[in-house]
Amino acid sequence: IYCDMEDEANPRLIAAKARLAPDILASPVGVSFYDMGRLVGEALDRALYRTRASLREGFEKVKQLPATVGHTRTHMTLGHHDRAVLKGPFLVLREYRGGKSVPLGG
Description:
- This protein has four helices and six strands.
- A hairpin with a 2-residue loop joins strand 5 and strand 6.
- The model has no long low-confidence stretch (mean pLDDT 92).
- Helices cover 39% and strands 18% of the residues.
- Helix 3 (30-46) packs across helix 4 (52-61).
- The strands form two sheets. It has a three-stranded antiparallel beta sheet with strand order 1-5-6, with no helix packed on it. The chain has a three-stranded antiparallel beta sheet with strand order 2-3-4, with no helix packed on it.
- It is an alpha+beta fold.
């Protein structure tokens, strides 16, 4: 049994795998970087100006952005005193069965 961050049942992961290049998907952090890019883009969109203070406010305005990593209910958000981006069930328990990695209990 081990922890992973990819759940094949997450529809956002399925959509990202159809869009992203194979070399990005081959990296163990490729999908996480994709999520971070989405979060930065949303923060830039919400920032009034392109200053550090305004960008911080933009990040704090991003709420409940669905994540590509983790289970379907995983989302991303930041706040003034909240610096952990991922919320919800972002760790996926997996096990090896028949030489293949499958979700625990799946």
